[in-house]
Design brief:
With about 160 residues, the protein is mainly α. It has 4 helices and no strands.
């Protein structure tokens, strides 16, 4: 697949994810500034987890180390869910002193969000890679610009 298509795929995914999470996190039926900010910061920690997983996935799955990758997937989820909890429980008041954030999510709840996103984005990346392989083999009629081992994640 061409790089603009890959980037567009991820932009659409993260935009949809933002508004879905915004709907989940909104404190009322009308979205407030604090809801946008909370969701944005939450998304930054999700994106960091997904980027870390993407790097790890390429290295480990190429080497056929599936068990180690699954273990890392879990550890990445726990680590970034913990960072998210730290940010919203301890640091956010220093980062944005004009806002009052309350995060009701336990580490287990956050882990569900993070592991869900890690699995979903892995499936998207693997699908993009599969389409790229098909194109390179001539089944798609278009030559791919994605080389073996190159990331399907835009950063």
């Amino acid at each position: 697949m061409k790089q603009p298509v890959i980037i567009t795929t991820w932009v659409i995914f993260w935009t949809i994810a933002y508004f879905v999470l915004l709907s989940i996190f909104a404190s009322s039926s009308e979205w407030q500034n604090v809801d946008y900010i909370y969701t944005f910061i939450f998304m930054l920690t999700l994106m960091a987890a997904v980027g870390t997983n993407e790097y790890s996935r390429r290295r480990l799955l190429t080497g056929r180390k599936y068990g180690l990758w699954l273990l890392r997937l879990f550890v990445i989820g726990v680590a970034f869910a913990s960072v998210n909890q730290l940010i919203f429980n301890r640091l956010i008041d220093y980062i944005l002193p004009g806002y009052y954030f309350i995060s009701y999510y336990s580490l287990v709840d956050l882990l569900k969000f993070f592991e869900g996103f890690l699995v979903l984005t892995t499936l998207i990346s693997l699908s993009i890679e599969r389409f790229s392989i098909r194109e390179r083999k001539g089944h798609g009629g278009v030559q791919s610009t994605l080389e073996p081992g190159e990331s399907t994640f835009p950063f």
